[in-house]
Amino acid sequence: MKFANPLFLIALSAILIPIIIHLFNFRRYKTVYFSNVKMLEEVLLKTKKESRLLQYLVLALRILAIAALVFAFAQPYIPKNKINTRNGNVVSIFVDNSFSMDANAKDGNLLYDAVDAAKNVVNAFSYSDDFVLTTHDFSAKQSHILNKDEILSLLDDINVSPHSRSMSEIRAFAQNTAAYSQKNNHINYYISDFQKNSLSGANFGNDTAQVNFLIPIEVKHTDNVSVDSCWFLTPVFNVGQQVTLTVRIHNYGTTDVNKLPVRLYVNDEQKAIAAVDVRAESYADYQLNYTITDDGVQCGVVKIEDSPITFDDELYFVYQVATNNNIIVVKSKDNRYLKAMYGMDSLFVYQEMPEKQVNYSQFKQCNLLVLDQLKEVSSGLASEIVKYVNGGGTLLVFPGEETNLSALNSLLNTLEAGRYGEPVQSSLKVGGINYESVYFSDAVQKNTEKVTMPQVTRYFPILSPSAATASEQVMQLENGSPFLTVYSCGQGRVMLSAVPLDDSFGDAHRNALFFVPLHNVAIMNVKQSRLYNTIGVDESASVSNKSTSAEKVYKLRAQDKSLDFIPEQRPAGNDVMLYFHSQVDKAGLYDVFLDDVKITSLAFNYNRSESDLDYYDADDLKAFGGDNLQLIDAQTKDLTKNISDSFNGTPLWRYFVLLALLCIIAEICLLRFWKVKGN
Asked: pLDDT tens, 583-625?
């Protein structure tokens, strides 16, 4: 047994008062003379013995009553945890406010029950304790130590959040805040529905210096169907092109879903509709086909109707239909093969420049810069190319018979790309193709038994500057020599070809396998990189840098006018990075403006991790920790008392108060009835 207020035990000295009173009876005796006391002697002896017994009993009851009252004020308890509470507590409370907590409950939703449980936790502690409140929001108010009144006020302001943090992130955030407290005892309460995906990687057994309590909120099983994700089968889009959008519908429920309508809208116009069937606890991929009718930024959304969980019934996405893809070829002579590959394709805007008449100002609007068999690379041209590549541009190099390799290699050395050796006379075929490369991805099947490989009669060896240089061999010759290699240089890339598009070097320029990577490198800058961002996961996005002044800023504005803010922005070559810092908290479509001129659009969706409504039971939760992890039933009638008992142990002060009352009543009864009997 321990005492919450042991200093009150000093009051036990008060038991000396009845002892002194009983030992020193200050009552004066009156002498009465009798002529003959012989008849009174037997009665006197009997009365004296009974009186002394009565005094001893009264003394014992008074001592016991005083001691019981002192013990009651000292608040004795039987401890359950080996924690010294003398220096106070810092109580950390996590309230799960993710989308899953918006499910229906008896008195509202699960979040309401969680907030009510959190208030009971707070009321179980005193005003001298410190408090830390954590939710999925990680707001600035939650990064400070709170007193009892402050945390009770913040609990009333908790709403459902679009963010979904892992348990490791939640614990780290709470512990960083709790470190500001001067209290020694750390007590953590986690109030949640405890979805299985929320506790992945959690191990409370590591917190040997802390005590952790889990308070599960009772959940009724709810079926849920969500639009999980979507993607296109083509990387580049043109007006009039028929495209296929693949949509994944996930059924997390225990019953099959039949004929669920799935609708596709692009720019507020319905483009496709399908009725899907999805088995229980499974998913299905469906393809929605439609024709692109407009160029520029296309804003789409896939919708289903499923209740009561609705946050994942819509999936927003954005893609770009290219109006032009500028390719500049700096040449020493005409090349009909390059013109046929890029100039005859409506996807590209093809422009040729003689090597002595180069317009450097157009490099910034160029998606691909091609150096085709140049005789010389002037210092001015080399300087502009370095600036272009480091800023995010793509350079494709074809050496030629009359090329000054020294000047060309000087440029490549500045870019830290490979360099060319003197041409080698040898009849070889392409012996290896990197089918996993992005330049071949989804373009060629791996079975090459019936594929005719490009053949060369001469080639320029490609020598890498060092082993540490970031490079990718797309194709190589039979002897292992690189045939087509890509180097990462600054923000851009450099692709080197071992042969020019010339008959004197073989037939590579007439082989389809060679044209696949050359075509793909040209569309890299218009290839769709990410259709949408996930709130709480993707906190940045890259957009084309169209600002000509450092004073101009980009703005992000929701299409439904619910949000308008200026994100953090950093130039990155030909692009600019926008950082959101959790400012976007609502799914939807957002326009990016530069001085009130719309540049592009971005799509944001809620995290689908909350869609899987599968929960841990009590036995599962106990496996996440050792002796310092305890479960508390949120349905307990007196939750505050249960929480107090779970930490402070079993309080005994009530029993001592009752004992003191019984002693007083016993004394009264003893004095009253013993006196009557004596009479």
From this structure: 998 999 999 998 888 888 999 999 988 888 888 887 777 777 6
Q: Which CATH superfamily is domain 89-221+614-648 in?
A: von Willebrand factor, type A domain (3.40.50.410)
3-state DSSP call for residue 283? strand
| Helix or strand (DSSP H, E) at 432 | strand 424-433
Q: What is the CA radius of gyration of the chain?
A: 41
Statement: the pTM of the whole predicted model exceeds 0.70: no
Beta-bridged to residue 248, according to DSSP, are: 229, 285
Superfamily designation of domain 326-523: Class I glutamine amidotransferase (GATase) domain (3.40.50.880)
Helix (H) or strand (E) holding 383: helix 379-390
The continuous run of DSSP H or E covering 655 comes out as helix 653-678
Sheet holding 2-3, edge to edge: 2-3, 76-78, 650-651
Predicted local distance difference test score (pLDDT) of residue 678: 44
Check residue 333 and report its DSSP letter: S
Q: Which two tokens stand for residue 352?
A: 């040729």
CATH classification code of 225-322: 2.60.40.10
Q: Under 8 Å CB-to-CB from 637, ≥6 apart: which residues?
A: none
H or E segment at 73? helix 41-73
Instruction: Write the CB contacts of 28 (distance below 8 Å, at least 6 apart in sequence).
Output: none
**CB 14, CB 63: distance < 8 Å:** no
